[in-house]
Amino acid sequence: MIATSVVLLSLLGLSLNLAFSSSLTQPDWAMALLLAGILAKRHNWIWVLPGIFIHDIVLHWSVGISFAVIALIPLAMIYFDQHLGSGLPQRVALMVIAILSLLQPGWEMAAVLLTLCLCVPIWYLLTSLYAQKPA
């Protein structure tokens, strides 16, 4: 249920980015939602990676660096969890690196910062939802 909601909201966010791309500075809605989904639970890669692939194809007309960075996040999370323990600093570093990949296709710095500010509360919300969900 959580995954379906996030995917549908990211498609809505993708539509918002396409509809208002030239008129105002806005965050990358789909990237923030999908990135928060994978940071909340690394096993979400199974539905996040196709979403990021669609995101890159629709918004950037290519499979950009965003897809490559997001695809490496689950592997980096496994490595960090085994060597450093699961912790917030590692997740924040991965989030910042993934969001900075938006600078490559030409996003404004204000839009990148807005995406970062949007990703944090969504990540917090998803993490708390997954914590409440029974195993």
From TrEMBL:
<feature type="transmembrane region" description="Helical">
    <location>
        <begin position="57"/>
        <end position="80"/>
    </location>
</feature>
<keyword id="KW-1133">Transmembrane helix</keyword>
<feature type="transmembrane region" description="Helical">
    <location>
        <begin position="113"/>
        <end position="131"/>
    </location>
</feature>
<keyword id="KW-0812">Transmembrane</keyword>
<protein>
    <recommendedName>
        <fullName>Rod shape-determining protein MreD</fullName>
    </recommendedName>
</protein>
<keyword id="KW-0472">Membrane</keyword>
